[in-house]
Design a protein that fits this description.
2 domains, 6 strands, elongated, single chain, 46% helix, 157 residues, alpha+beta, three-stranded mixed beta sheet, 5 helices
């Protein structure tokens, strides 16, 4: 690794540790010539995951955009940021594990709903109301009834 300060090719690794759920390695290095220290990150480079929108447009998957929607749904609810981050990481991991380069926006939305259902019912309904674009109170009530049925089925287990 080349020293960013003096350009020397000889540097030594002082410390290594995994960060970001083990997908990145952080290395603390020292230059043999100028003795200055610096940090490098090695990250696994994965092929981009592309989201196909309902209108046919394609966007690169963004965990931060997905999390923004989840955060809005979870606003003023007893859900920690850590729980939301874990859910978002789990969704992304599951989407990437399909080994498909493209996923539909509906697959992403349904995966978010599944995670929110296990976190908080109110957040689930908030997200569903935007994602499924309830056109009237009848559709909203149908979603609430489905939620009640799912909860009842889980309680029986």
């Amino acid at each position: 690794m080349r020293c960013p300060f003096c350009g020397n090719e000889d540097t030594k690794v002082l410390d290594s540790r995994q960060v970001e759920e083990g997908t990145t390695v952080r290395r603390r290095r020292e230059c043999d010539r100028c003795l200055r220290r610096f940090t490098t990150f090695e990250k696994f480079e994965d092929s981009p995951l592309v989201v196909v929108k309902k209108d046919g447009r394609r966007d690169v998957f963004s965990r931060s955009k997905m999390m923004a929607g989840m955060l809005r749904a979870c606003e003023k609810r007893p859900i920690s940021l850590e729980q939301i981050e874990e859910a978002a990481y789990s969704i992304e991991k599951d989407l990437r594990n399909t080994h498909e380069r493209e996923v539909t926006s509906s697959e992403v939305g349904e995966a978010v709903l599944k995670q929110l259902f296990s976190l908080d019912e109110v957040a689930y309904i908030r997200f569903a109301s935007v994602y499924r674009q309830f056109k009237d109170i009848q559709r909203f009530m149908e979603e609430l009834n489905e939620l009640i049925e799912k909860r009842g089925a889980l309680e029986k287990q």
